[in-house]
Every structure is written in structure tokens, then in C-alpha cells.
Design goal:
With 562 residues, this protein is mainly alpha-helical. It contains 20 helices and eight strands. 56% of the residues lie in helices and 4% in strands.
């Protein structure tokens, strides 16, 4: 069937590809809406005391899906009768739409057989358009429900979140390239980015910043867990009071679960110092819990410290930013001066400090973004401010990581390169690569010297030389032998010279210059007019004792008897 199907023109093929990208964006939005709707309907069906209609549950699901994108909702059913905003976004719930948009934009650019691939700009535009069309339909449907959306928040930050996730997907499909700076940038910036280590420095700074933010979030989550265990009884009472049946308790548990990342960000802000606000008249920091807090009944909020000035236990939360600063220093030096690297290959102190500073800036920026997303208003009066102040939290994260990360990276780099002569030789020996030992190469022996060898061999030796030979078993040392050739002649000796003297019992003297003079090039050796055909200069090279024992009939070696 595929062989007989009519072929599409280039214009029709391009239109089909764009329609496919638009459809992928719409499908991603539909999957997000459907997953939240199924969960809400399951809880509504299982609730025995539900007094709302299925339409109310669907409106609630639509509101939650829009809230996951950062849109602000308006809650009309309040005790005072004044509509109250709901801007606190559950960060774990926001992971679902962000991942779906990212995957849709990435998969559109994956080449498949029989389907052309659109350009990056076309894929981005079509996926975002398809997603936002479904989002607009959901917002229109939920405008008359208990949780309607605030229209300006659909553009910022909801549309911005969708565009950012789609752009990240396109960038991932392209292999995460780091492009050149714009043409209007200074020439010095172009030259700096064109250098070989720019990609390495940029990648190290990004990874180090991500590691610093992760340590802050992990430390914040640890603080929250310790506080919940410390205040386990109030948290349990709050959980029981919110819902009496099991369906309601499951709903409260799921709501607390999707708010766990928010609590981790709040804990990180507490450890950094600025803390967070519990309404317009109360602030919680390690130094003090001041003001009159507006605390809704919720299990996570029951883990707040006691009101009043902070104690040493509260001040110990400063270990979280200290750990983040140490992490920034450690991850920087991992690439700046890795173990076993030569001093010439290590980064300079200026490069190390610059990368650590850039990582600190990235850590502060990421913390500020998370702090802005983790908080939000829950009312118009006392709860108009709820959560950490993003710019104070980001500035505190930047200050901690710069003051600890940059000096720590420099000190750690100096410690790893503390050897005074640390270079390629010293670092190689430290890494387990021993320095090669030079082997002495004997000098070439001329034909005239070989001709005079029998006469020197037959000359009587001095008395002290004869005594030394007798006490040491002769002058045949194991490093002077290299085996025999066929015919019984010693390798490297001409017939009738050293070999004859050795067979007659007279030791063959070794030339004094053979241990220190360099080897002559092959061309020079080949040009000798009276060169012996059986002579091989390389036979004079030292050999090991095992070869010596196989070459000598008496089995002599370093130990005499092997």
C-alpha cells in the first residue's frame, strides 16, 4: 500500500509536517489535562460526602491544570464573600506539563523514515501554538467554576513556562549546542568565547550551579523533615482535623505530597537567612519568629518553629548554605585541578575563581526563580504574602556561595597543587606512572677494533685483575651476555676473536666506551667498508638474567645457580 500511494509534493509535505507538530503540542496539553482530570474524578467518586456535581469536579481539574503552569486562580467561595487569589503553585504538579511540552518539542525534531523534519523555529512555533490553543479552551471552560483563572496570568507566567519548556526541548533535540554570541556583542567577548576552554568553563559553571542548587534544596528538605518529626503531634492533629473520611485524607496527603518541593525551597530560604513570610505581619528566620502569623490548618505548616527569638538549634540551619558553598568549590576544582593532572594542565587561579563566581551567580539565580515559584498569595489581606521573598533569597544564595565557594575553590586548588615541583613528572609519579629509567646504549664497534680484539684478548692481564676474576668466578657478568648464535659463536663477535678467546678460557674484555657512547645511525654502520656480515651491533644491548641462563651452558646468572 505504501508503494502504490501517491507521493506528496514538497509544499504538501511541509504542510503535513507542520500539522504534525501542531498536533503534538495539542496532544501534550491533552495528556496533562486528562491525567489531572482522572485523579480529581477518582477522588470525587470515592468521597461519600461529596455535595458537588461532576461539572464541579471537572472545573476543579481545569483550575488545577492551569495552576500547574503558574496561572493565578480566583476562588469565589470564601467566608467573607470577597474573591481571594490562589497563587501558590504546587511545584511537583508543575513537573507534569513542563515535561510533556519538553518531550513534544524534542520528539518533533527526531528524524523518522518517510517524514521530513521541520526547522527548529517551525517546531517551536507549532508545538507552542497547539499547546496554547488547548490551554485557552480549558481556561474558557473553567471561567464559571469555583476556581476561575485570572486572565493576565495566562500570558505571564503560564505562556512563558510553556515557551521555555518547548525551547528547552528544541535545544535538547539539537544536541544542546552553545552558539556564538550575537553580532552586536563586543569583539573581546567573541575572542574570549572562541578560545578552546570556553565550553569546558561554561559546562563546569552550569553543572556546579546545578549542584549548589541541589544541595540547597536537599538541605531544605532535610530541615523540613527534622521539623516535622520534632512537631509530629501537631502535624498529626492538623491532618486529622482537615478530613474525616479516608477519601478526604487521601486528598490531603496528595496535596501535601505535591507541595513537598515548595517546602524544600522554604527550608532552603530559612537556612540562607531571609526566611519566609507567613502573611503580611509575620516573618520566620533563624534569628527570630516575629509578628502574628496567619497560619491555615495544614500538616506542613504545623512544622514551624516556636515564636520568639531563635536558639542555637535554629542557627544550625546555616549548615545548609555552608554545604552549598563547599559543593560549589568542590565541583569547580574537580575540573580545574583534577587528581593526577599536570600543573601545566590545571586552570590558573583567575580561571578557577571566575568559574566559581559564575557558578555562584547561577546558583543565586536558580534559587531566586525557585523561591518565586514556591510562594504566592492565598488571599487579599493577611495572606497576600505567603512564602519566601525571591530577590532576598537569591541574593543570600549568591552571597553565601561567593564568599565560601570562590576562596574554597582557590584553597582546594592550591592544596592539590601543593608540591613545589608539581609538573608532568611529579604528577605522573603521584598518579602511579613511574618515571622511565634511561637505558645506556653501547657505542658501535668499528671493524679495526674488532680486528685488534684477538690481540687484546691474548694479552696477559695484571695480577690484581686475575685475582678479581678468580674471586668472582671470572669477568663474565650476566648483563654482558646476549646468547649464542648457530655454530657456537658468541653473538656479536667475529669468528676467531672474542669467541675463540672465551672458548680457550681467556675472558673477553669489554670495550670501555661501549657503556656510554651513543649508537651510530644505521646508514653510518652500513657504509663501513670492512663491516663483518655476521656482526649485529644490537647484540651488545643488555639482556635479563633469564635469557642469560639459557644462553650460557653453565647456567650462570645473577645468583650463580639460578
Amino acid at each position: 500500500m505504501t508503494g502504490s500511494s501517491p507521493s506528496l509534493s514538497a509544499e504538501q509535505s511541509r504542510s503535513a509536517v507542520l500539522a504534525f507538530a501542531l498536533l503534538r503540542g495539542a496532544v501534550a496539553a491533552g495528556l496533562g489535562v486528562g491525567s489531572i482530570t482522572v485523579l480529581v474524578l477518582a477522588l470525587w467518586i470515592s468521597s461519600p460526602a461529596s455535595d458537588s456535581s461532576p461539572g464541579g469536579a471537572l472545573h476543579a481539574a481545569a483550575g488545577l491544570w492551569l495552576l500547574a503552569h503558574g496561572a493565578e486562580l480566583i476562588r469565589a467561595d470564601t467566608l467573607s464573600g470577597v474573591p481571594a487569589p490562589v497563587g501558590l503553585v504546587p511545584l511537583l504538579l508543575a513537573v507534569v506539563p513542563v515535561w510533556l511540552v519538553h518531550r513534544a518539542a524534542r520528539d518533533v525534531l527526531v528524524p523518522e523514515e518517510g517524514r521530513p523534519v521541520p526547522s527548529a523555529a517551525e517546531a517551536f512555533a507549532m508545538v507552542v501554538t497547539g499547546y496554547l490553543l488547548v490551554g485557552a479552551a480549558v481556561a474558557y471552560y473553567g471561567r464559571g467554576g469555583p476556581l476561575s483563572v485570572h486572565p493576565p496570568s495566562l500570558l505571564f507566567p503560564a505562556a512563558l513556562v510553556v515557551a521555555g519548556a518547548a525551547a528547552a526541548g528544541v535545544w535538547t533535540a539539537a544536541g544542546r549546542p552553545v552558539g556564538p554570541p550575537p553580532s552586536w556583542a563586543p569583539v573581546s567577548l567573541h575572542e574570549a568565547l572562541a578560545r578552546g576552554r570556553f565550553r569546558e568553563h561554561a559546562g563546569t559553571a552550569c553543572r556546579t550551579a546545578a549542584a549548589g542548587v541541589s544541595v540547597l534544596l536537599g538541605g531544605g528538605a532535610l530541615l523540613v523533615a527534622v521539623a516535622l518529626m520534632w512537631h509530629a503531634h501537631p502535624a498529626q492533629q492538623s491532618f486529622v482535623q482537615l478530613a474525616g473520611d479516608w477519601a478526604g485524607r487521601v486528598s490531603v496527603f496528595l496535596l501535601a505530597l505535591v507541595l513537598v518541593p515548595n517546602a524544600a525551597v522554604w527550608g532552603a530560604a530559612y537556612g540562607l537567612g531571609p526566611g519566609f513570610a507567613l502573611g503580611t505581619a509575620s516573618t520566620v528566620t533563624p534569628l527570630a519568629f516575629s509578628g502574628r502569623p496567619a497560619l491555615p490548618g495544614f500538616p506542613l505548616l504545623a512544622a514551624m518553629p516556636a515564636e520568639g527569638p531563635g536558639t542555637a538549634l535554629n542557627w544550625s540551619a546555616a549548615a545548609v548554605p555552608v554545604a552549598a558553598g563547599v559543593t560549589v568549590a568542590w565541583f569547580t576544582v574537580r575540573r580545574a585541578a583534577p587528581p593526577g593532572a599536570a600543573r601545566e594542565d590545571a586552570w590558573s587561579p583567575r580561571e578557577t575563581a571566575l568559574v566559581a563566581g559564575l557558578a555562584a551567580v547561577g546558583c543565586g539565580a536558580g534559587t531566586a526563580v525557585l523561591a518565586a515559584a514556591a510562594g504566592g498569595p492565598l488571599g487579599t489581606r493577611a495572606l497576600a504574602e505567603f512564602g519566601p521573598v525571591w530577590w532576598l533569597t537569591g541574593a543570600a544564595a549568591l552571597a553565601w556561595t561567593v564568599l565560601l565557594g570562590v576562596p574554597g575553590a582557590l584553597l582546594l586548588r592550591a592544596w592539590r597543587l601543593r608540591e613545589p615541583g608539581a609538573s608532568m613528572d611529579g604528577e605522573g609519579e603521584a598518579a602511579g606512572n613511574p618515571r622511565p629509567v634511561p637505558v645506556p646504549v653501547p657505542a658501535p664497534v668499528s671493524a679495526s677494533a674488532l680486528a685488534q680484539a684477538p690481540a687484546r684478548a691474548q694479552a696477559p692481564a695484571p695480577a690484581h685483575e686475575e685475582a678479581r676474576r678468580e674471586s668472582h668466578g671470572g669477568d663474565r657478568r650476566w648483563w654482558q651476555w646476549s646468547g649464542r648464535r648457530g655454530g657456537g659463536a658468541v653473538a656479536g663477535a667475529a669468528p676467531g676473536s672474542e669467541a675463540d678467546a672465551a672458548s680457550a678460557g681467556a675472558p673477553a674484555p669489554r670495550p670501555a666506551a661501549a657503556a656510554s657512547a651513543p649508537v651510530a645511525p644505521p646508514a653510518a654502520r652500513a657504509s663501513a667498508p670492512d663491516r663483518d656480515e655476521g656482526f649485529e651491533p644490537y647484540d651488545f644491548l643488555p639482556t635479563d638474567p633469564w635469557h642469560e641462563r639459557t644462553a650460557r651452558p653453565d647456567g650462570a646468572g645473577p645468583s650463580g645457580n639460578g
